[in-house]
């Protein structure tokens, strides 16, 4: 049988574990407040009434729609956030009547 030499092994196992434990404790000590949200900083975002400059004082106007016609589609867009209200493909490949009831629907 051959005897094993400790050359090239890079140190003792206890030293490695001690260094790993110290790294974990240090990481948790410095990072844990940021992970849990208890780091340095205000509890609430400091917003005042002046920060809400984009909100109108009057009631919101009624919703309006705009129809956008392209080469292959027709889209209806709302003024409420630019939401797409409807979209229709005009190619013959996609010409399926939308008003048909879905399969298995209860009338």
**Beta-strand content bin:** 15-25%
Low-confidence stretches: none
Number of helices: 1
The number of distinct β-strands equals 3
Query: Which structural class is indicated by helix and strand composition?
Result: alpha+beta
- Globular, elongated, flat, extended or rod-shaped: what is the shape? elongated
What is the averaged pLDDT score? 76
In which range does the helix fraction lie? 10-25%
Helix-strand sequence: HEEE
Major beta sheet summary: 3 strands, antiparallel
- Give the radius of gyration: 33 Å
N- to C-terminal separation? 86 Å
Fold topology:
Elements: H1 13-36, E1 65-69, E2 73-78, E3 84-89
Antiparallel strand pairs: 1-2, 2-3
Using brief descriptors, characterize the structure shown.
single chain; 107 residues; alpha+beta; three-stranded antiparallel beta sheet; 1 helix; 16% strand
Question: Your description of this structure?
Answer:
The structure is a single chain. Among the domains are: 12-40; 64-95, no CATH class. Strands 1-2-3 form a 3-stranded antiparallel beta sheet, with no helix packed on it. The protein is elongated, with a radius of gyration of 33 Å. It has one helix at residues 13-36, and strands at residues 65-69, 73-78, 84-89. The chain is an alpha+beta fold and 107 residues long.
């Amino acid at each position: 049988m051959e005897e094993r030499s400790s050359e090239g092994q890079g140190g003792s196992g206890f030293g490695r574990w001690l260094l790993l434990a110290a790294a974990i404790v240090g990481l948790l000590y410095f990072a844990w407040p940021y992970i849990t949200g208890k780091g340095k900083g205000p509890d609430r975002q400091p917003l005042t009434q002046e920060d809400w400059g984009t909100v109108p004082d009057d009631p919101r106007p009624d919703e309006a729609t705009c129809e956008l016609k392209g080469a292959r589609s027709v889209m209806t867009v709302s003024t409420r956030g630019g939401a797409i209200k409807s979209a229709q493909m005009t190619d013959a490949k996609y010409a399926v009547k939308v008003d048909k009831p879905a399969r298995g629907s209860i009338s």
